[in-house]
Amino acid sequence: MTILPSLVYFVCATPRSGSSLLCTSLAATGVAGKPEEYFERLRHSGLPREPREYFDGADGDVVGLLPETRTGDPAGTDLECELPRYLAEGTTPNGVFGAKLMWSYFGDLLARLGTTPGGRALAAIEERFGSSLRWVHVTRRDKVEQAVSLWRAVQTRAWRASDEVCAEPVYDARGIRHLHRQLHAHEQAWRDWFADNRIAPLHVEYETFIAEHERTIRRVLHHLGVSVTHIPDPPLSRQGDDRSARWVARFREAA
């Protein structure tokens, strides 16, 4: 039988919203679990969402700019087998477990729990993870910057500054526009789901987080009901650069 942590929380986000920096910062405190994307692998592929899967129904020329789709082992998404390991890896000694969720695969996780976002989703999550849940919603105010960052990441497969770049990214307004719409839609989907389930998550906005790192981490820890004396410095480097800034300006000028 899986032994549940004393507290479980989920960081709910959209890609390139600062959620990785938040989760890494929380893990560095040593008292807030080790929030990772434990549930990102999809049932049909056994892999996280592939670059071309962000563009279902999009222009073929845009899709052609993205890496070929890979496949993995779908057996690796068996929640019954994998959940004990996730809980062991993601729980700190004080009994706190954290995980990050993106809307793009939230429905896939719920299907493994036997429900859908519009069904008895919250009850199913509570049955599996316990009723002592906390929710954090991460957003990014500047959706154009977010979409540009995501467009570069899906072309290069480089999600962190340390990742190896698989291809040189190119500007394409159609790709950025598609992701811009998708990010808006997925963020709204989170808001609607929280409202439908009467959940009041702690809201963390990327722009404020970057300016007030320690204060933001302490807000999240307070929301979780834990505390720590020292907040470590931000553990990740920002990936934005002059090229991103030029692409953002170019996209806005053409809008």
Describe this structure in words.
There is one protein chain. 45% of the residues lie in helices and 10% in strands. It contains ten helices and four strands. The chain has helices at residues 19-29, 60-63, 79-90, 103-112, 121-129, 143-156, 173-196, 206-211, 213-224, 242-254, and strands at residues 7-13, 96-102, 133-139, 202-205. The protein has a four-stranded parallel sheet with strand order 2-1-3-4, sandwiched between helices. The model has no long low-confidence stretch (mean pLDDT 94).
Which structural class matches the secondary elements?
alpha/beta
As for the number of domains, it is 1
Percentage of helical residues? 40-55%
Mean pLDDT, all residues: 94
How much strand content do the residues show?
Answer: 5-15%
Could you give a short description of this structure?
45% of the residues lie in helices and 10% in strands. The chain has ten helices and four strands.
Key features?
10 helices, four-stranded parallel beta sheet, 255 residues, alpha/beta, Rossmann fold
Question: How is this fold's topology laid out?
Answer:
Elements: E1 7-13, H1 19-29, H2 60-63, H3 79-90, E2 96-102, H4 103-112, H5 121-129, E3 133-139, H6 143-156, H7 173-196, E4 202-205, H8 206-211, H9 213-224, H10 242-254
Parallel strand pairs: 1-2, 1-3, 3-4
Helix pairs in contact: 6-7, 6-10
